[in-house]
Every structure is written in C-alpha cells, then in structure tokens.
C-alpha cells in the first residue's frame, strides 16, 4: 500500500474523536510493519494520551523497526502528557511519516528534528491537505489566537432569511445536529433566544454539547428558555451593560465586555480555549447580525454555510438579509442536495 492509504486511515481514526479533543487537535496514528497495520490509535480528549501512545501500545513489540504514520507532527514537549517523540524513539520505530507540521509554536518542526537527531527517517507532507482540513479550526486558532468561525443561515427560494431550519436538519444525522457536535460553541442572539423555547443542541449519540454563546447587546434583561436548565449545554451570556438573566442557574454565566464586537467576542473565546464557533443567524436585525457588520470586512469569518429551503415566503414574514460585504466570493464550494433543502458551503478567502 502507498503512504497515502495509511495516512487516510490515520485521519479516519482521528475523526472518531470529532468534537471531543478541543483545544487539542484530532490526531490519528497507525504502525505498519511489512505492509501490515500492527497498531492503531487516536487522541480521544485533551488531557488523555496522544494518538502515537495508543498506537504504540496496540503494536507492542511489533513497533520495533516499523513505520509510524501520524496525521500531525509528533509533539516534543511535556504538556498535559509526555512527548510522543520519546515514545517513538523508545519503541525503536525506524521511520515516521507525518501528515502536517504542528502549528503549535512549542512543537513546530521541533518534533521532527528530535526524531531525525535520533536516527529515525522522517517524511512530512503525506495527504497534507486532508490533514489540514481535519484540524482547520485548531490551525486557525494556533495562527491567530481566535476561533475559526462559520457563519450559518437558512434562506427561502426568494432569498429571505428564515428563522427555522430545513426539515430534518436538527434531527440525529441532520447537518445541523452534526455541526453542533463538531463545533466548540454556537453564537446566537439574545433576541432569538427570548423568542424560542428550544435550544440549538446536537442530537448525535454521545455528542459533547457546544457552549451556547448568547449575544445580548444593549439588553438589560434576558429570559432564557427553561430548557436551558435541563440541557447539557453551558451558556455564556455576553453583554455590554449590567443585565438580569433569568432563570438563574450555575450553567449560565454572564460576561461583561466593554464593547461587543466580533473581535472582542472572538478574543474572549480564543483565550478561553474555544477553537471553533458557529454564528447562527435566525433574523436579520439582531445582536448577532450587528457583529457581522464589521466582522465580515475584517476577515473574521472563515466559512459560510447556507441552507436553501424549498419555500417562497412573503415580505411580511421575513426580510432579505442586509448583512454581508460587497465583492466577496466563496471558494472551495461544496453542496449537498436532499429532498428537504440544499446546503452550500464554502470558504471566504
Ligand atoms: C501529538 N499527538 O495526538 C496530539 C498532539 O497538553 P498535551 O500534552 O495534550 O499537548 C497538547 C499539544 O500537543 C497540542 O497543542 C498539539 O500541539 C499537540 N497535540 N500531538 O503528537 C496527538 N493531540
Ligand atoms: Zn504527542
């Protein structure tokens, strides 16, 4: 088998921990000897051992003189766990094939240098694009200090902004439910939350619920849906003046920011270790669309996901979106058509 085959297997293994590793990356590792996979592992959660450690344990003595494939450069530092370079050296592997360099400044290339210095053959860049896509949020936060942001909204066939999602989107296996499993936080407006009785939660089996970040700009009171208290989600209300939030709960915290802008929200979230956010737009005029006014121009949104629902809707029910920048194009477009809606996603350059 070619190197790409084993690296794709690493990525497949890494994805078993989707939504569980933040602020750490998802990483997979396989140990190959004489063409056979003799060990496999992935990083399950921050604080737990890294992918290489699980794969080496799985391979046991067979790791000696084997090749290790890892989707991210092995670490060379003592963090929550000891360095993977030492584990690979002690196991006497003869070659390490790496998907991508770790953008974490305390690792960046030092892991590979350490392996090479101990006589291990190192190859880097196999299935690099795939490995980078897997950890686009982690890479973005390492490079900018801010979370990776995806803007999501639903439109009618005549282009109006819908407050509801397409049929099935919120059910298990639906795109929205899967998206919430994957992201660290979802950002919604206080106006939306005070109008609804449900919370955006993931229904995937065993999913970690994202933080619910509620933007309450210029609001002095906020009534949260009572379902918040019974849900697994933690809530952060971001306000720019003193605000009374009901009902009171230890799951709900209020953060006062001097000014609520997309920059101040993202800086706060990045410092708190959140790597990825969905900005969920449910109405045209609200605290969240206001954030976008400057935020889109400043390049603070990386990805856009638009759901086109097969309905026409009148102007009295919904308005055309007023946010957005002139002359911007999405790239790397992907679409998914179902009976109920069409999902289009792409990246802002
Ligand atoms: C690897 N394999 O599976 C992961 C790596 O606090 P720690 O010890 O978990 O270290 C976290 C850092 O280690 C993280 O920021 C990233 O640079 C690297 N993650 N490295 O060799 C893995 N998860
Ligand atoms: Zn490691």
Automatic annotation (TrEMBL):
Query: Which residue range or ranges hold the CMP/dCMP-type deaminase domain?
Result: 1-123
Task: Give the Pfam families listed for this entry.
Answer: dCMP_cyt_deam_1, RibD_C
Note the InterPro entries from the entry.
APOBEC/CMP_deaminase_Zn-bd, CMP_dCMP_dom, Cytidine_deaminase-like, DHFR-like_dom_sf, Eubact_RibD, RibDG_C
Cofactor(s) this protein requires: Zn(2+)
Report the domain of life of the source organism.
Eukaryota
Provide the GO MF annotations for this entry: 5-amino-6-(5-phosphoribosylamino)uracil reductase activity; diaminohydroxyphosphoribosylaminopyrimidine deaminase activity; metal ion binding
Q: Which GO terms describe its biological process?
A: riboflavin biosynthetic process
Named in its record, the pathway it takes part in is: Cofactor biosynthesis; riboflavin biosynthesis; 5-amino-6-(D-ribitylamino)uracil from GTP: step 3/4; Cofactor biosynthesis; riboflavin biosynthesis; 5-amino-6-(D-ribitylamino)uracil from GTP: step 2/4
Sorted alphabetically, which keywords does the UniProt record give? Hydrolase, Metal-binding, Multifunctional enzyme, Riboflavin biosynthesis, Zinc
The record's NCBIfam families line, in alphabetical order, gives: eubact_ribD
* The protein, known as: Riboflavin biosynthesis protein PYRD, chloroplastic
Native source organism of the sequence? Dendrobium thyrsiflorum
